[in-house]
Design goal:
The protein is built from 1 helix and 2 strands, in the order ββα. With about 60 residues, the chain is of the alpha+beta class. The protein has a two-stranded antiparallel ribbon.
């Protein structure tokens, strides 16, 4: 059976700093939720362009201050 899966790129936040990127999906019954470990096909590399763009935008904002 197949069904649509919604995924999003998010950042783990800690009390002291913003953490690493993480791929999150809407499949709450998946045993790999919050692991992004094989055989789960989700990985941060899928969002390499988005991460680079976000980093560049963050850097541009820092330079603007």
């Amino acid at each position: 059976m197949s069904e649509p899966v919604l995924i999003r790129l998010t950042r783990l936040t800690r009390l002291t700093r913003t953490g690493d990127y993480f791929v999150q999906c809407n499949q709450v019954d998946c045993q790999y939720v919050e692991a992004n470990a094989p055989p789960c096909p989700l990985h941060v590399g899928m969002f390499a362009e988005e991460i680079r763009a976000a980093s560049a935008a963050r850097e541009a904002r820092r330079e603007g201050y």
